[in-house]
Recover the amino acids of this structure.
């Protein structure tokens, strides 16, 4: 997502053609609401909402055991609902209010105080309200993503406590650092649509949760409905156009480039995962295609507005191959139980994407980003710093949150409930009747 | 009366049913079951990890027949269900003490 | 949806920035087509289409008994299809043609006569064609919503007769009264996106149908696939952004505010229903979360372009709590068989939303609406009048339509067909093979 | 999709209002990026992506036998993924690069070489990148559509070879002929959104494949999940608004008209199929409604930006009735095994739509098209030529591709694998656990 | 001890269960099965083509009872499951050699 | 030969299967069934209304064994399937008159 980039940028968004014509007459440099950009942000925000519900809910739900399907969906559902409410109450303000020492935002937007339909988000051509809504959908999916590591044994009531804590103590500061004029954005870290803020963050948080919770009794992956997972993957792919191309905050050429880069990397990663699995296990699986697509989407996220199609293809290949090994080799080797691989896929592909952004950022696509291949090796270092600091902060804080909640209320269900299945035990429901 | 219970490979169902109808069997009941035996389970792959599925899908056919028909029925099932490969299944024969047709209340062989 | 609000409004939509620059040169006040607004309306109309099929079809279908799944879907499907055809033939004209005595529109748009791609809808910046399309999707979902009360026993052929009658005799006049410059719009009733026209209307029509049809043999709710219901709820939530924010008919700040209000109330209502059910029955259900979300969407509909986030939160809470009691206490007490609670959820939450709009309408969000809390208690009275008159008209007329169709062709299936299931009996199909 | 139509058109898209005001000052006729149009194309491209995955994947998947569900989905998935990658590498350039003798494009866009976010697609107001993305989604769904004829017996590895061959040797030239300033566009053939390029093409390719493959052992249609098919149909309907109205490449009145024509024909065709089936077999089926809707969408595709609502209704009726006979009478009579009727529905309805466009094109909707009813009988002849030449080329070339791949690697699975089901044999997975 | 196995029409399940509970039956096990018999299969229509589905959904109820209760149980099922139309189903009676209650290890009639 | 039929709690299936394999059981067939007995049904909540579900999911294991193995098999199932809570299920034993292996046509104990 763009942070302040000076007046030129906004002018461009206000309509270049227009500018050229009225050139000299144009004295006032305050950006004006652009209906085309606003239309795009209304849509993009809706797209990202769809990613969590039903997108991610079905992507994850399909992989859960039949007896845990609804519970798995409920985790994403409540992640979205709770985040939605606290976001407009105070979290948006802490993340995007006026910067306080590079660490956090102030409380100017508490309860969306003072924001009216006429307020534009600073240095954009779109209303503050929809910028807030767009950002909300990012926060919500991040915590929902983390749930993938911890399903089939997490106490539902604990989740309802973890979500607001996690958003407040982890997501909000990191979002501020990267997108809210915080210290990482000062540093020059490139994260077009949230590779660091969303995916690395969610991945390591999930890992922390999995470590605190311990292994499930039955760690086997028995997808109750692979078609649901593919449905979810399709909706995620679709919604991700809003996520990535929407992060340009304008309907322009860079958004268009981000659209194409997103699609290219995703397609490539789906193919790459399929082939890797084929070579390793003799068969190309549909779950692998879907997993590869998601890994590709994750990895292209930070890069989407910076790289050209060749960069996208390379990123797609890396994203499609590496996580195959983290989920099938590293996970059993280290012995953590990352149920649906939120860490193995999102964390890992997010990390790869963050670094590769520093390699492939092509200034002819976006002047704001110049990578190793275009003569700026330093960018890789910055990307590493941003990725590592996010990982560390998120991992440590997540461990603390899970631990503390565990101490106060317990976060793991009883063994017999785990065996009976959480749909019945936690919700009193059966998915299929 | 005897109950003939055959556990067969699912894709053989149509063939077996047609063969049984041809020799005049008037009714049967089938159930989707899962079998475990000498036939090795199959391997499924999820997220680059192989899992062995021990239980394989099978179809159980149950048909109650007159004592005199048992042999013919067994022969027919044997012929139509056989592929010669491991996992073809079994036929079990049980004694049936009584049969009642619910619609009419008829009992015995005429109720079959 | 906006009715005529004078020139200023359109000018704003034509691009404020533009105006400021060319100020004096701007003599012609006729609104011009705005590509940004048109883009948004093309999208919003598509979103609302998605709400009916597959959104509502799956939301309802998932709750139907397994043997009635396809029939339940078919009711929504044909509601949409039939409405689509009669809408462009004559219904649009009757609803939005030139006002005749505040009661009905004239026939100027019969067969879309005289409308060309250059025709803009009066006092908007978008083409007449897409305005017609947008309105079409509202009409279609309204009658589809009503089907929720009467599934599992309705004769399919009767439905095909009821749909056009109901649209023509009930939806069209009410839409005209509220949005087509009819008497309710003269009165000053606030209904941003259709709380009255769509939800109250559908709810009481459903109730009328349920009363004429009588109880099912088995009134138990046995959802064949709760996941489908959640899928439907997710798609409805997504599509509802088009419904509510689209009702601004422009991609601007009010649309953005409506987007955020919609999301906030919905999330809050999902949480509120979940908690209420938890307290009453010991478990938070996923069907409850989905039901709460829908109740929230319904209640915020009339208010979405008028209220601030605090208003949205209160509306969400009320919408999440009250219908729990109408469906679990009032329904069994009074003994009507509102199969999927079209009345209990849509009717009730629609009514609550209509009244609360009169309470929370905040003029700093939208100068067109000023509620009780902002010093205009009279608005609540107007809202009550609008809600009650719609309820009465719709209920009485719906009773008549169901009764008359019953006399002519019978509207209830034979008992043995009800037991066997309508998928097989009415359609010759089985949902799952 | 529009090809070059001279400056006036672009000017219109650049904002008519603007033009009127700045009139004389407007010297430079180069089109400028329009944010509203770009917003719409970003969305429309995403919509068409959704059509393939999960739209078509579920539409087809639901009709497949339970044991072949995932394989059927995988064919669409890989069709999309492979096309996505080769498109940006070279296929886009061959289709839309500078015309070489009316036959093919040049290699100017190889690897998207030289395209930057500032490049607009010639004679449009939208970036080259999103135009490329939009076109990509068309190519992908075309080959995915063809898979419907050949499921339940095709070797998966063969498909991975067929897709790139087919796109390169068949789709690319035809797209060039019709939309890339090739010989068919010179001829004056009307194909607004791809009736010829997409649907006729996919239909006959599928038929060729079915002929080379031969009949399945069990040709019975046993839909494992009719609800999935309806879900897919709903998503296709939704996405098709992007397909048809997006083909205007601008958010304007013609796009709005195309939206409404699309919806009208689709609804009418769903009703028409349902009634036809009812009269023939005694029951209105939900699969029939969905099939009819798809037939309607197909038939209106070439006509969508040219016809008025009456034209749409007639096209809808024809599209809803005729394919009922091709699938239930012609297919068994001729004995080919077109598994899911890609030919019987898409090919046939695409052909009907192409011809009827020549009949109903109404110049008051779009000056670029004038049909038989408006005094231009010659258009029908042109349409016939375009349709027949596409059919012939695609059919012959497809036969060759399928045959050659068969010779080199075999395209049909072993009989026992066909019986066991391709999910298990080809992918090592089971859809439902 | 005898096993009484009844194949009935699915929608009769609740009625039969209630009737059995009323006469004091303590337990039963049910299975979703498919039946083939004199009752003609049903026709389904997909893409304007009619397919005959040979196997119809049925419910199999199994209940093991003391010898002395057999008659009463059969009567009860007959009464509650009958519609008088073809396809009402059958009752089959088998001998059970032994019954064990897993929870306690009890054997014989007291284990039922 | 005898058929041993055990109705058990679903989550016990893996344990029982492993135990049976360990004592050398060569084959078995399982069916998903629903049981009614002393164990109270469970309550589900839909739209704030509680419904009691009478029938609970159970697994039926059927294995045909030589007469000499019956006791050992029953013991094994008892041990591996027991939780001690109501609803653990039952074991029923029936006589089998004949067994045929479809693949080979073998009959009698060697066909098991
Ligand atoms: N002892 C047994 N009791 C019950 N069912 C059995 C038994 N042995 C085999 N079966 C059933 O028969 C099926 C086929 O048996 P299997 O040993 O795999 O091959 P085969 O029939 O060729 O000997 C099994 O999957 C199982 O359903
Ligand atoms: N000989 C049989 N063996 C096993 N099951 C049978 C037999 N005959 C009938 N059935 C079962 O009983 C059901 C009803 O039988 P059918 O012949 O259709 O009608 P009816 O019970 O009225 O004679 C069948 O669908 C089948 O499940
Ligand atoms: N008489 C019976 N006939 C057939 N199945 C029975 C019978 N009694 C119990 N069952 C089966 O055994 C299961 C467990 O029985 P239940 O009475 O609930 O507990 P317990 O086994 O502890 O006595 C039931 O759910 C049912 O499937």
């Amino acid at each position: 997502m763009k942070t302040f980039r000076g007046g030129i940028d906004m002018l461009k968004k206000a309509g270049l053609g227009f500018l050229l014509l009225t050139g000299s007459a144009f004295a006032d440099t305050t950006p004006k609401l652009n209906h085309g950009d606003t239309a795009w942000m209304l849509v993009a925000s809706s797209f990202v909402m769809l990613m969590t519900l039903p997108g991610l809910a079905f992507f994850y739900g399909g992989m859960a055991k039949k007896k845990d399907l609804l519970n798995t969906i409920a985790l994403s559902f409540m992640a979205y609902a709770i985040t939605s409410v606290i976001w407009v109450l105070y979290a948006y303000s802490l993340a995007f209010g006026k910067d306080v020492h590079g660490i956090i935002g102030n409380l100017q937007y508490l309860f969306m105080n003072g924001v009216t339909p006429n307020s534009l988000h600073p240095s954009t051509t779109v209303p503050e309200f929809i910028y807030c809504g767009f950002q909300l959908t990012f926060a919500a999916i991040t915590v929902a993503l983390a749930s993938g590591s911890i399903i089939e044994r997490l106490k539902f009531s604990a989740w309802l406590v973890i979500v607001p804590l996690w958003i407040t103590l982890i997501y909000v500061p990191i979002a501020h650092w990267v997108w809210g004029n915080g210290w990482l954005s000062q540093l020059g870290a490139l994260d077009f649509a949230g590779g660091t803020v969303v995916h690395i963050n969610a991945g390591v948080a999930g890992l922390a949760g999995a470590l605190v919770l311990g292994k499930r009794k039955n760690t086997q992956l028995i997808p109750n409905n692979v078609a649901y997972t593919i449905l979810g993957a399709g909706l995620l792919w679709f919604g991700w156009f809003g996520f990535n191309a929407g992060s340009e905050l304008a309907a322009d050429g860079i958004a268009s480039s981000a659209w194409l880069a997103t699609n290219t990397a995703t397609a490539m990663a789906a193919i790459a995962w399929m082939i890797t699995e084929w070579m390793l296990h003799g068969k190309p699986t549909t779950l692998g295609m879907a997993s590869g697509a998601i890994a590709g989407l994750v990895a292209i996220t930070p890069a989407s507005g910076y790289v050209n199609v060749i960069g996208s293809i390379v990123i797609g290949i890396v994203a499609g191959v590496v996580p195959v090994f983290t989920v099938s080799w590293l996970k059993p080797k280290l012995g953590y139980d990352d149920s649906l691989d939120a860490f193995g896929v999102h964390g890992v592909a997010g990390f790869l994407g963050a670094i590769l952004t520093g390699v492939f950022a092509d200034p002819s696509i976006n002047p704001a980003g110049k990578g190793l291949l275009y003569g700026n090796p330093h960018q890789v270092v910055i990307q590493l710093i941003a990725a590592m600091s996010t990982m560390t902060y998120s991992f440590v804080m997540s461990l603390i949150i899970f631990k503390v909640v565990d101490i106060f209320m317990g976060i793991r269900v009883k063994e017999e409930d785990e065996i009976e299945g959480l749909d019945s035990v936690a919700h009193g429901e059966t998915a299929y009747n | 009366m005897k109950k003939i219970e055959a556990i067969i490979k699912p894709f053989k169902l149509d063939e077996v049913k047609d063969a049984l109808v041809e020799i005049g069997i008037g009714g049967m009941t089938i159930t989707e079951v899962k079998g475990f035996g000498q036939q090795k389970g199959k391997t499924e792959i999820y997220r680059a990890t192989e899992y062995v599925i021990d239980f394989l899908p099978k179809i159980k056919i149950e048909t109650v027949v007159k004592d005199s028909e048992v042999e013919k029925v067994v022969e027919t099932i044997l012929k139509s269900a056989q592929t010669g490969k491991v996992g073809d299944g079994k036929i079990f024969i049980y004694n049936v003490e009584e049969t009642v047709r619910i619609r009419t209340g008829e009992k015995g062989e005429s109720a079959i």
In short: Chains F and D do not touch (no CB pair under 8 Å). Strands of chain F lie at 2-8, 28-36, 42-46, 49-53, 56-65, 90-95, 98-101. The radius of gyration of chain F is 17 Å. Helices of chain F lie at 13-22, 70-81.
